[in-house]
Amino acid sequence: MVAPDPHTLASVFGMLGTLVSFLVLLAPLPTFYRIYKRKSADGFQSLPYSVALFSAMLMFYYAYIKENAYLLLGINSFGSIIETIYLIVYMIYAPSNSRIFTAKLLVLFNFLAYGVIVGVTYQIPNPLLRLKVVGWINVIFSVCVFAAPLSILAPNILGFTFGMAQMILFLVYKNTKRPILPEFKLNEMPNRVAAADDEIIVACESTTQTGLKTGEGENKTSCEADDDHENQSQTTETSAITHDIETSPESIV
User: Fold this and answer.
1) I need a surface site. Which of 147, 165, 170, 185 has the fewest CB within 10 A?
2) Contact 80, 110 (CB under 8 A)
3) Quick one: 54 exposed, middle or buried, by C-beta within 10 A (0-12, 13-18, 19+)?
């Protein structure tokens, strides 16, 4: 059996890898279409796309210093463009705090870190060593691209913990018997409850009668006071009339 040509295998798997990478880059399209329809990026994270753009730019640099890496140049040029479009759409519809966070990520990864890597590795005099160093850097950040979407799990860690605690408590206490309180019908009430009701009724009646008597006494007292005041007024008027008659000149004559 004839062994396959290594160059042929490299070309075939290179094309397959390019096709798979193309599909991976197009995978977020439904997400950004949903963001566009909702006119809001609330609930989505920009970290995976920032890291993906950084990785595509690094792979483009690797393909640039490597000879005859046209497939890598093509797919990573497309990757850099599509990831930039994703981030632009995200920043249009994201809240202000998310925009600031995304801008910080772009400055940190795509300007500072990328500039340092290119500037430092380009000074390596040995082309093979330079290619190897840049290749390992790309491997590390390619792994980060696939690990970055796990950042969405961070807000759910606390909820997951409490949910597990609730399930454990349910499994521990699900067979525990609860004490059942006795139920009574209206005609089967205990004597103590009935007696208490009678005492409450008697107390209410006595309070009502006392209130009525007090009200009657107050009304009677007020009426007697009015009568005394009226009699005193009449007596005062009679005395005044008598005094006038006695002191008038006609009565003296």
Assistant:
1) 185
2) no
3) buried
How many Å apart are CA 238 and CA 250, to the nearest integer?
19
Instruction: State the Cα–Cα distance between residues 136 and 118, nearest whole angstrom.
Output: 14
CA nearest to 145, candidates 24, 30, 62, 29: 24
Provide the phi-psi class of 43: left if phi over 0, else alpha when psi is between -120 and 50, else beta. Answer: left
Residues 6 or more apart in contact with residue 73 via CB below 8 angstroms: 60, 63, 64
How many beta carbons lie within 10 A of that of residue 124, not counting itself? 15
Please name the amino acid found at residue 12: V
User: Which burial class, exposed, middle or buried, applies to 115 when counting CB atoms under 10 A from its CB (0-12, 13-18, 19+)?
Assistant: exposed
Token pair for residue 236?
Answer: 């005062």
Q: Given CA atoms 88, 90, 95, 99 in this order, what sign does their dihedral have?
A: negative
Chain segment 158-192, per-residue pLDDT in tens: 666 777 787 787 777 777 766 665 555 555 544 54
**33 against 142, higher pLDDT:** 33
Do the Cβ atoms of 51 and 149 come closer than 8 Å? no
What confidence tens digit (pLDDT) does each residue in 17-33 have? 888 888 888 888 898 88
